[in-house]
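We treat protein structure as text, and this decision shapes the records that our systems exchange. We quote a single record here, exactly as it is kept in our systems:
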Amino acid sequence: MRIFFEVLVLCHHLRPTYGSFDEKLNFVFGTVAVGGFLLLSGYGVGVRTREAGDAYRRRLLTRRAPMMYARILLVDLLYLIPFFLIGNTFASASSAIVSVLYLPFAPGFVALSHWVYFIADLFVYYLVFGAFSMLFRKKENGYMLSVICFTALLAVLIAVLSVINYRTGSIRYMRAALLFPIGLTIAGCEKTFFTKVNVTPLKKWISFGVLFALGCVPFFFEEMRFVSEYITPIPFALAAAVAMMGCEPKGKALSYSAGLVIGVYLAHEAFFRIFRYYYPSMNKWLSMLLITLCAVACAVLSDLAKRGVRHLIMKREQKKGAERA
């Protein structure tokens, strides 16, 4: 599913569009991909929280969230290359600092990457849900209480942003934010409800058809803009998840490719900017292919570097253990 959603992201960001219908189709690609990633993230966090309890709650706050922020810092350093290559400059030293640190509400902030806000939002979601989960961990039904509080906070934020029509920084992504708590909810109800449901192929595809149809409805009514921005991602992402129910492909190549998804996502905009600036007349489809290949290569190199660091750390720990013995 992660690979599928990443392909949709690349299509949404890189694929040339022709005409209003094609633009709407491209919006569907982005909607399904963005919503799907949040659905998977919420579900994964929920399952691990229910299985590991306090150990994972602490890890979410002390490791997972900081790792997300570390990725933002590394990506912003990477994006300084195309930023300067195409002739941009910062207005001041403070502007450079808040931009690299990704502080979108600070004066002078410049978005070095327009798509890194997805990772920034996950960082915030991990912190907020982790905090609620720690707060209610000793209460009966504390998990679902955490999900309810998290969802209520997102709903209030969406309502406020809808009123002031704020569309900058990581806030742009709020239209799919509700899928994270939906993923948390599915994880919470999995053992008590979903295991008791007998899902036949007929029920599966009827559910898919209904959800997909619900997602398409707002496209036919211009006055339903609010619905198309905040509600549409939910049925589309759920439809994609339902369509993949029962599919369990396995293999080292598939597992390795799934592990590269975040790396490809974080790298592709840098190459997109470079190709668009230096090779504006290149065939759009060829450009899309080359950008994707470069992003994959960058993700592979990043993964190799991470494995190398882990190997060195492991060898160092083994050496220390042997010396103590």
